[in-house]
Amino acid sequence: MNSRERILGRVRRALADVPGDEASYERAVARDYLREHGERTVEQTVDLLAENLADYRAIVHRCTADDLAATVAGILSARGTRTVLVPPGLDPGWLAAVEGAERVADRAESTPHELDGVDSVVTGCAVAIAETGTIVLDGGPDQGRRRVTLVPDHHICVVRVPEQVVSSVPQALERLDPVRPLTWISGPSATSDIELDRVEGVHGPRTLEVVLVGEV
Amino acid sequence: MSGTFVGMPAFPKAAHEAVGNTTLRGNLRHATHTIRAKRANAVAEVSDWAELREAGKRIKDHTLRHLDRYLEQVEESVVAAGGVVHWAADADEANRIVTHLVKMTGESEVVKVKSMATQEIGLNEALEAEGIHAYETDLAELIVQLGKDRPSHILVPAIHRNRGEIRDIFAREMGEWGRPAPEGLTDTPAELAEAARLHLREKFLRAKVGISGANFIVADTGTLVVVESEGNGRMCLTLPETLISVVGIEKIVPTWRDLEVFLQTLPRSSTAERMNPYTSTWTGTTDGDGPSTFHLVLLDNGRTDTLADEVGRQALRCIRCSACLNVCPVYERAGGHAYGSVYPGPIGAILSPQLRGTQSEIDASLPYASSLCGACYEVCPVAIDIPEVLVHLRERVVEGGPVTREGNRVVLKPAKGHATERAAMRAARWALGRPGALRTGQRLASRTRRLHPRALPGPGKAWSGTRDLPAVPAEPFRDWWQRTRGGKDGGQ
C-alpha cells in the first residue's frame, strides 16, 4: 500500500462517525459576515484607500490622467533613479516625461542579479482594496512577472481610480483569477520579528509609491 | 541550548527553569503586551468579527469532516495546474521525499520560507545529514538558526530574544554563514532588518531551489497561499527554478471564495494588521513567471490520528495565527521552549500531545500547562475550544483509553504518577453519590478545621507546594442553608 492510500484510508477510518448525509458545503458554511464594512461614496472609498496605504507607509500621490506622466517623472527624478524597469505591456505614455533615467526591459533571460542592479520599477495593478490599503498584482502585461516588483528597491504602482478600487477583501477576490499568480501588497516590506513591533524595510522594495490616477 | 526538542523534560520542570530567567520574562512580557492591545484594535475595526470567526470555524470543520474528498480534489487540481503531488505519512517519509527532490536538481543548498510543517518534521537537520544546506530566510528563523537556538513562538520564533541579543548574534554568527554583519551594527530594529537584507540577498539571487509551507490550499483551484511580511517568502516562491511546498493535510479550504474569511481574520489575529505586507498565491506553474517545477508534499504525521478524536480534532482548524500564545498567562511567563515542541502555547498544549501521542513525559504534561482561564478560546479566529480539549486530554492521560496512533486503534494505559488523583476522584465520586456520608464528612472537617495542616502531606505535597489549601468554613453550606433558610433569617 502506498502512502496516498494509507493516508486516505486513515482519514476515512478517522471520520467513521460522520454521517453520510451531512449538510453540503453550501449549507454547512454560514456566510453572515459583511461584503464590505460601512457605506461609502466612491470618493470616500478612494480616500480610504489613500489613507490606509499611507498608514502602512506607502507614499501616496494623486493626479489626473493628464498629469500622470509628469507625476511619474517627478517621483523618479526626486528619487535620483538612473535605471527604471518597464513591464512589457506598460503604457508608454506613463513614462513619456521621464528624462535622465534609462528604461530597462524585463527580458525572459534577465537574471535576478540584473534586476538587483535596477533602481526602480513602474507597474499598473489588477485591483486595489480600500479597507486594507492593499494593491494586488496579477502578472498582467502592465505588471510583468512577479520578480520585477520584488528585487528592485523602489516600486511605483499606478492605480486607476475609481475603476480599479474595491472596498473589501471579498470584493477583491471576486475580481481576481486564481489561475494567475497573485501578489497582494500592503505597504513596503516589513517585519514584526523584533519584539513584535512593525519595522519597515526587509527584503522586498523598501519604498512603495502608489499613484492614484483619475478624476476622483 | 541545542536545536532539538528531543528528550525535553516535562513542562513543570522546564517552565520552572524558564520562570527564573528574568531577561526571558522581560522579553516575553514586552512582546506579548505590545501585540495584545494592537490585536484588540485590529479586531475592533471589523464589526462582523463574530460572523467571520463562525464562518472560519465552519469552513474548516466542514473540510475536516470530508477531508478524504478534499484531499483527492487538491491532488487533481494541483496536477492539472502542472504541479507534482507527493504523500508523506510521517516526518521521515516527508524528509526522504524532499531530500530526494533536492538531490535530483543537483543543488546542495536551498532557501526556505518560514514553515511550521518543516520545523515539525526536522527537515533542516535531515537535509544537513545529506549534505544539503538549508538557509532560513524569515528574520526570526534566521535569528534562531544563527543562534543555534530553538523556536519559541509560532509567528515570531525568536520572540525570546531582545534587540540587544539579536545584534550580538548577528555580529558574531553572520560571517560564518555568508556575508558578515555590517561594522558597528547597533541594536536599532531598522539596522538589524537591514543587516538581514544584506546577508540574505546573495542567497536569494543565486538560489535554485526554494522550500516553503503554505497557509492555505484551495481545493477547487489547486491554489497555494503564503502570507508573510518581509518579502523573503516572495523571494523563495518566485526566484528559484524548483519550488517544494510541504503542507499539512489540514490546510485545505474548499473554494477560492473561502479565502475572503481567512485573509481578513489571519492578519488581524497574528500581527494585528489590517493586512500583512505580502500575500502570494500560485496555482501550479506559470510559463515565464516563477519556478518551472512545483512539488507539493502532503503531510500527515499524526494529523489523521488527531482527526480520529471527536473532541480533539478541532485543533486541526488552527490557522497558526499565534493569538492564543500572545494572550496566555502561562506562555507569557514560561516562554515557548518549556512546551518542548515547535508548537508552543495553548494550541501547542493540545496539538503536540495529539500529533505525537501522550507517551512521553513532556507530551503527557502538556495538557496541564494551562490554568484553563479560557483567554485562548476568546481570541481564537476559528473558535477552537482549547480548554475543552485540554480537559479531554487530561482525562486521557489519567484514565487511559482507546486512541489512534499511526492509523491504528490502541488502548492507552492510565499514566503513572496520577494514582493519587485517580484515588481522590474515586473517593469524590463515592462521597458525592452518598449525601449522608458527604454531610458527615463535611461536619467532621468543619469541627477539626483548626487541626488542618497548611500543606498536604505525602503525595499531595507537590500540589500544595504552589497553592494555598482552601480554608474549611466553620459550618458546612448545607447546614447553614437549613439553619437560616437560605439567609432569609439573617443568620451569619
Description:
The complex is a heterodimer of chains A (216) and B (492). With 216 residues, chain A is an alpha/beta fold. In chain A, 25% of the residues lie in helices and 25% in strands. Chain A is built from six helices and twelve strands. In chain A, strand 10 and strand 11 form a beta hairpin. Chain A starts with a helix and ends with a strand. The relative contact order of chain A is 0.18. Chain B is built from 23 helices and twelve strands. In chain B, helix 9 runs parallel beside helix 10. Chain B is globular. Chain B has a six-stranded parallel beta sheet, with helices on both faces. Chain B has a four-stranded mixed beta sheet with strand order 8-5-6-9. A two-stranded antiparallel ribbon of chain B has the order 11-12. The chains are: A alpha/beta (216), B alpha/beta (492). At the A-B interface, helix 1, helix 5, helix 6, strand 9 and strand 10 of A face helix 2, helix 3, helix 4, helix 8 and helix 10 of B.
Characteristic terms for this protein:
heterodimer, A: 216 residues, alpha/beta, Rossmann fold, six-stranded parallel sheet, four-stranded mixed sheet, 6 helices, 12 strands, B: 492 residues, Fumarate Reductase Iron-sulfur Protein, Chain B, domain 2, 3 domains, 49% helix
